[in-house]
Amino acid sequence: MIEATQNDITSIVDLVNIAYRAKDTQGWTSESAIVAGDRINAAQVQQLLIDDSKVFLMFEDAVLIGCVHIQIQKNSCYIGMLTTHPQVQNQGIGKKILQFAESFAILNHAIDTLNMSVLSSRTELIAFYERRGYQLTGETTAYPIDANVGQPLVKDLVLLHLEKQVKPRREG
């Protein structure tokens, strides 16, 4: 995994939108039946490349096949935009990317909690994270219609929040 730079923005946008919103290359992460429009744009990726926020990329034969965003927030780390190209899904790549993000956050920052948000209708994705130790917090957030991340196609779509407690790395 390597850290993304400004030069990677277009590739990240393409990968995320193919994995989550493309109608013709649907993998199990596809949201095209529940949300219309792009999942992310270049300006939004640009905003992720700031202090305490990183996007990591996974390549196979010089082709971008996965990415993840981490944002450090005091004693926690938000993990988002976990993406695997539909052509290489179901090969354990998503698990490896998630493990990398978690390990990076724990080893490099004094955190005790990992957080993420998932669309409420994505029960298979919630189960994926629960198998990796995440638990639903009971907190929800309205779908961010004004955030330019697509328009819901299903009624009552909300973001569910998950968290995973971790042991912070000890100094010394």
SSE blueprint and pairings:
Layout: E1 2-3, H1 9-21, E2 35-36, H2 42-48, E3 53-60, E4 63-73, E5 76-84, H3 93-108, E6 113-119, H4 123-131, E7 135-142, E8 151-152, E9 158-165
Parallel strand pairs: 5-6
Antiparallel strand pairs: 1-3, 2-8, 3-4, 4-5, 6-9, 7-9
Describe this structure in a few short sentences.
By secondary structure, the chain is an alpha+beta fold.
Sequence of secondary-structure elements: EHEHEEEHEHEEE
| Biggest sheet character | 7 strands, mixed
What general outline do the C-alpha atoms trace? globular
Approximate helicity band: 25-40%
Span of the ends, CA to CA: 27 Å
Number of helices: 4
If you compute it from the alpha carbons, what radius of gyration comes out, rounded to the nearest whole angstrom?
15 Å
> How many DSSP E strands?
9
Description:
With 172 residues, the protein is α+β, with helices and mostly antiparallel strands. It contains four helices and nine strands; from the N terminus they run E-H-E-H-E-E-E-H-E-H-E-E-E. The strands form two sheets. Strands 1-3-4-5-6-9-7 form a seven-stranded mixed sheet, sandwiched between helices. The chain has a two-stranded antiparallel sheet with strand order 2-8. Helix 3 links the parallel strand 5 and strand 6.
Keyword list:
seven-stranded mixed beta sheet, 33% strand, two-stranded antiparallel ribbon, 26% helix, alpha+beta, single chain, 172 residues
